[in-house]
Each structure stands twice: as structure tokens, then as C-alpha cells.
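Weekly modeling sync, notes
Attendees: AB, CL, MP (scribe)

Item 1: holo prediction request
CL wants a bound-state model with molybdenum atom before deciding which constructs to order. AB pointed out that an apo prediction alone won't tell us much about the pocket. Agreed to run with the ligand included and paste results into these notes for async review.

Input as submitted:
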Amino acid sequence: MTERPTSLTSLQYELDQRSSPIGRRAFLGVAGLGLSGIIFGKAWSDTLDESSIGKKAAELGAPIGRWTYFTVTDDYPSMAKSQYQLRISGLVDRPTTLTYADLLKRKPTSMTKDFQCVTGWRVRNVPWTGVLLSDLLDEVGVQSGATALRFTSFDGEYTESLTLEQARRSDMLVAYSMLGADITTNHGGPVRLYAAPMYGYKSIKWLDGIEVVDRVTPGYWEERGYDVDAWTGRSNGRDDEAT
Ligand SMILES: Nc1nc2c(c(=O)[nH]1)N[C@H]1C(S)=C(S)[C@@H](COP(=O)(O)O)O[C@H]1N2
Ligand SMILES: [Mo]
């Protein structure tokens, strides 16, 4: 298997050995997937909450709150802003391809919210800026019969989904800035999704396509056992505070 979060630190790896999210169903879902299966597939330990992760991190002398980059391919695909294109297709009145410059011309929306991975780490108060998904949907005109979105990544592997209702929320962002700067390659730049109320796996990196479709197609991790509706604190058997 080629799936592996290549930059996973040894700390994160050790923590994830103890702190993966969910129960048997997902465990079975990820079994046999190689390293990513190991990392995402261990049973959740009740004794390891966020603060004990912090304590463990301190014991190991490693920084916590440090962001862990993920990829399911062998690398972090890099793309110049000048080359970037976002294709919006499917059940829309006006199929559209937007460049990076086109996105910057649209009304910006900013929000500051936590980022929570389903494996347990959380980064607080992250500033994000981009274009609201709902603004883009209004622009292209969603046709009747559409119920969901399917997202693709230019890493060639990762996919995600949202229902149309979820996508129209005011905290679903096609983001080009995070932490006060352009989104870096490792974090999924130049453009990624930030699905604020959901676990990090919904926030697809290196976003290159949004297809409006008539049914939900489970995304990469969802095919491997994670919940399709990924609400923080009320999915995947977890009880984190909401993001
Ligand atoms: N294309 C792509 N998007 C992805 C992932 C990935 O491996 N590939 N990992 C997901 C998961 S599980 C999380 S927690 C976040 C991590 O974002 P980061 O790498 O910027 O920390 O990205 C999500 N989006
Ligand atoms: Mo994650």
C-alpha cells in the first residue's frame, strides 16, 4: 500500500497508537491498510483525553499543538498559484473553472476556529480566509435533483463529500489562507477546503474539483470506516467539544 502520512512525527505516531478514534466497525474498515491503517485503526483508549496527550507530549519533550501534516500518497503535491484551477461541474447551470486569481476576486470570508483531527490532535483558534462554498454554489447555479457534492484533490487519490445542506452552511470554506498566510503546500495549498464543524478529514487538501451530484459518494477515509457525517463531538464515537 502507498497510503501513509509521510510526515507523521514519531510523537504523533506514538500518540496515535493509543488514541485512534473509533470502534470496531472502523477498525475493521482500516485493517490491512499498512501504516495508515495502523495509525488510524487502533482502538480508542478511554484514559487518553486531550490533556493526557499534552502530558505525554511534554514527557517526550515534543511540542504539542504542532500541526501534523497528512497525505495519503507518497508526497505533498506542489502547484504554483499561476497553474491552479478549480473545476466546478455536475448538476450546475454554469459549469465553471476558476483560477487562483478568480478566487481572490470573489467576496472573501474569514473565520477563526479550531481544527480537530479525528485521531485526537487539535489546533486552536486557526484563522482561515477563502470563499464560502455556498457563494460558489450560488454563482454556478445548483440544479434541482442535486443533493450532494463530491470533492477531488490534485494528489490524485483523496476525495471527500458533503451533502448540499451541509455545504450551504456559513462555516464551509474554500480556503486560500490559513494562519494568516497563504496555505502552504504541506497544508494543501494553494487551495483546500475548511469544513469547520467537522473532523479534519473533511477538509480536503489540494482541492481541484467540486462536482455537484445527486447522491453522497463516501470519501477516502469514509470508504475506510469513518463516518460520512463527520461532525466534531458527535460522530466517530468521539465527544470532543464542537469546532
Ligand atoms: N488530499 C488530502 N486531504 C486531506 C488529507 C490527506 O491525507 N490528503 N488528510 C485529512 C486529514 S485526516 C486531516 S486531519 C487534515 C490534515 O490537514 P493538515 O495536513 O493541513 O494538517 O487534512 C485532511 N485532508
Ligand atoms: Mo485527520
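Recorded for review: The pocket of MTE (ligand 1) is lined by residues 67-72, 117, 153, 155, 158, 187-188, 200-201, 203-206 (CB under 6 Å).
Action items: CL to compare against the apo run; MP to circulate these notes.
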